[in-house]
């Protein structure tokens, strides 16, 4: 049972059948991911983890996924301790690391870097985030989390809230969720709207997408509220960041107007856009979403390696 692609560069590169295959595989890994059942499925396999940008969840969940399946990892989290610091190109780094392992997970600040890596690599490349580009394994775990909560990834009303300009997770999720006939509400502060090319592209494909600045007005309609932080590190001007940084906050008072089975997701890390009082409410599913990242990445590794 293989995927139609060797590399996971963007969600667009996956067919609906690929997505279903990944999700049915992921369902099988729950006990192994919790450490309740041993596995040697990927014994002897080595995953290269090349992180040129900080990460907690993506890096550690990939490491956890392969180790729970009996494999191991090599890699770096700080490019300054690799020969990149001496000026080695990404292409040469990939051509080297592919000689040491069976698949590479790459996070890099430059958009298009994962595609470039896949062009020079003979082993699978999994994009773990390329600047403001794509983060397809996050998109898969987001959709998988929706499926776990609603039993389906179709015909839902999904609100994407926050920094929709710089947030790569929401770009990928907008394409992915609308492919499955969900109605999208894109809600942002002024200046951080979903890029026009994405909105227009989705509208031209006949997908339902509604732009809004008013969360209170949209919230009662939603099945899923997908919150993202403002991406401070992508602002070149600190004063521009300060203007928008407190523009939305999810708290229990606000959630009183939500449907009782509405669910809040967040790719994390959060800063202060969801107040801690929400964490123990029935709405909060973002830490379950973190666990879903392990089973989805186990599924990907088992299908690709
Ligand atoms: N959601 C996500 O990509 O988190 P990290 O940046 O911690 O990997």
UniProtKB/TrEMBL annotation:
UniProt-listed InterPro entries: Asp/Orn_carbamoyltranf_P-bd (IPR006132), Asp/Orn_carbamoylTrfase (IPR006130), Asp/Orn_carbamoylTrfase_sf (IPR036901), Asp_carbamoyltransf (IPR002082), Asp_carbamoyltransf_Asp/Orn-bd (IPR006131)
- Which residue numbers delimit the Aspartate/ornithine carbamoyltransferase Asp/Orn-binding domain? 155-303
Q: Which domain of life is it from?
A: Archaea
Q: What does this protein do?
A: Catalyzes the condensation of carbamoyl phosphate and aspartate to form carbamoyl aspartate and inorganic phosphate, the committed step in the de novo pyrimidine nucleotide biosynthesis pathway.
Q: In which pathway does it act?
A: Pyrimidine metabolism; UMP biosynthesis via de novo pathway; (S)-dihydroorotate from bicarbonate: step 2/3
Quaternary structure and partners: Heterooligomer of catalytic and regulatory chains.
Q: What is this protein called?
A: Aspartate carbamoyltransferase
Q: Which organism is it from?
A: candidate division MSBL1 archaeon SCGC-AAA382A13
**The protein's enzyme class:** transferase
Pfam families found in the cross-reference section: OTCace, OTCace_N
Which residue stretches, if any, does this entry annotate as coiled coil?
none
Q: Which GO terms describe its biological process?
A: 'de novo' pyrimidine nucleobase biosynthetic process; 'de novo' UMP biosynthetic process; amino acid metabolic process
């Amino acid at each position: 049972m293989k995927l139609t692609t060797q590399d996971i560069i963007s969600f667009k590169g996956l067919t609906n059948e690929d997505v279903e295959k990944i999700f049915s595989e992921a369902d099988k890994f729950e006990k192994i991911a919790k450490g309740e059942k041993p596995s040697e499925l990927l014994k002897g396999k080595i995953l290269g983890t090349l992180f040129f940008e900080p990460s907690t969840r993506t890096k550690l969940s990939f490491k956890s996924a392969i180790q729970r399946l009996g494999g191991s990892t090599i890699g770096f989290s700080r490019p300054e301790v690799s020969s990149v610091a001496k000026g080695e190109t990404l292409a040469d780094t990939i051509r080297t690391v592919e000689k040491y392992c069976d698949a590479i997970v790459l996070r890099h600040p430059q958009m298009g870097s994962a595609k470039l890596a896949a062009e020079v690599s003979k082993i699978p490349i999994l994009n773990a985030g390329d600047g403001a580009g794509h983060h397809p394994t996050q998109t898969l775990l987001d959709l998988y989390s929706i499926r776990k909560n609603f039993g389906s990834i179709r015909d839902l009303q999904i609100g994407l809230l926050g920094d929709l300009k710089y947030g790569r997770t929401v770009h990928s999720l907008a394409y992915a969720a609308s492919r499955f006939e969900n109605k999208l509400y894109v809600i942002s502060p002024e200046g951080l709207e979903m890029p026009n090319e994405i909105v227009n592209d989705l509208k031209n494909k006949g997908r339902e997408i509604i732009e809004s600045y008013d969360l209170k007005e949209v919230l009662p309609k939603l099945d899923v509220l997908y919150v993202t932080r403002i991406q401070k590190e992508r602002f070149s001007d600190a004063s521009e960041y300060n203007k928008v940084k407190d523009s939305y906050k999810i708290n229990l008072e606000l959630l009183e107007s939500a449907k009782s089975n509405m669910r809040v997701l967040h790719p994390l890390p959060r800063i202060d856009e969801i107040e801690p009082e929400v964490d123990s409410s029935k709405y909060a599913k973002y830490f379950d979403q973190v666990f879903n990242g392990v089973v989805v990445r186990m599924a990907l590794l088992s299908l690709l390696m």
